[in-house]
Structure formats: C-alpha cells, structure tokens
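Let's sit down with a protein and look at its sequence and fold side by side. Which protein we use is up to you, so please pick one and set it down. Label the sequence line and the structure token line clearly, so we can match residues to local backbone shapes. Go ahead whenever you are ready, and we will take it from there:

***
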Amino acid sequence: MGLIFYDTHAHLDYQDFAQDIEQVVERAQAAGITRIISIGTDFESSRRCVQLAEKFSSVYAAVGWHPNDAMAAPDDLRPHLKELALHPKVVAIGETGLDYYRMPSAQNNGTPEDDESFKTKQAQVFQQQLELAAELGLNCVIHQRDVQGSNACFEDIMKLMVPFAGRVRGQFHCFAGDATAMRRVLDAGSIVSFTGISTFKNGQNIRDTIAATPPDKFMLETDCPFLAPIPYRGKRCEPAYVKEISEVVAKAKNCSLEELSAGTRATAHSFFPKLK
C-alpha cells in the first residue's frame, strides 16, 4: 500500500451506506484510508457506529448526540452514553456542539421563544457531553454552524468549553472559519479538521485557512455521505475520497503527501488516545 490517511469523521451508520458498507470499507482500504471514525448523532446512531467498529477492524466510533436533535434528547444523556463510550473502540464523544443555522423560527411557524428554548436545550446537551468526556478522559467532536454573517454559535461554543480547558479538547470538524477563528480554536487547546469543501472552486477561503494552520493541528475527514470532493461533487461521499482531499490540502500547505500523511495521522493518534 502507498500513502496512508485517516477519515476522522464519517457517518457510516447512515442509510446511504446500508446496501454496500463492506464495499465502502474495502474501497477505503484500497485508497490507503486505513482508519475511519464513524460518528454517532443520537443513541441509536451511536450504537450502530459501535457495531460497525466491532465488525470492521479499520472502523472506530464516536458516540454522542447532535445539536440539531437536541429537543429529542432525554434530560440526562450521560448514563446511557457512558455505557456506550466504555467500549474499547469508542475514541471520542460526539458529534456534539451547537447549531444556530436551523432555528425553529426559520421553519414550522416557530417563534423567537422557540429559538431560545432550542438554544438552551442544545447548550445543556453539549454541556453534558463535555462533562462525560472529561470524566472518561476522551475528547469531543464539535459541530458548529452559524447563520451566515453571524459568529454567535462559535462564541457560545468557545464559552461553554472554557471550564473544560486542559481536560477536554475539541475537534472542530468540517472547519470553515478563517485563520483568526482557527487560531482561537488552537489557543484554546483544540484542533480543526477539513473536508471536501477544501476542493470546491469556491473553497479558496478554506484553502487559505489550511495554509495558515500549523501542520500538527489539523486532521482530514469526509463527513460522508455529505460534501463529496471534486471530482465527485454532488454524489454520495465515502471515506476513500480522503485521497482527493489530501491532494488539495497538500498543495494548499505546500508540503508533500508523505509529510501530510505523517502529520495528520500523528495528530489523530494524539487527539484520539484509544485509536490503535
């Protein structure tokens, strides 16, 4: 096998992969993607990710509850998530964080009061997952999405993470912020990861941030089945496509693929201590 890369954020448990998951994992291996972290979004999804990690040696899991589904979360997620997180192949808590992009007032005749309730519940769900991560010595996979032109979601995430400094680091996944935002993430002890958006024609802002990010402070991911890189844009994404992402990222970093492989893999092992 030639160059080796990891996909540090995939949703292999989604229905999109139900028919051909074996082939998807095989194609990833053939492309040199030797580790895939499948990310849970609620209890059921997290359980499926653990099952996939048990089935495939190259697959690991993160267990968590996504902010978009916060209103459906129980009052206390921690006991059940903890049970899942103790599995030897569970390497992180998440996907968790905040999302202010899909507010109730923007759909279903929701009101500003509904928005505030949603934000409060998201924060509670995020806080519980940070607490669990601290208790278990794991890090968190962070989802963050703002309304265009706003920074409120990012600011609220940074505030909620302050009490956990030195105990829980975040992987700010699918990072689309500028170099200033990236430096704030790194200064807080967390890291970023980049997806296929980096290959898009209109992704120059992402490539600029990649160029500014220190080589030991970022990872690569697909966020599959979403965000397939060029030349697959608009199709189902899969872990094998880290190969195409790595080529664009290496160019943006002005480094060799060998250097990128070594750096991003070392960062992944440091961030996910249970990753073998």
User: Anything to note?
Assistant: The two ends are 18 Å apart (CA to CA). The chain has one domain: 5-271.
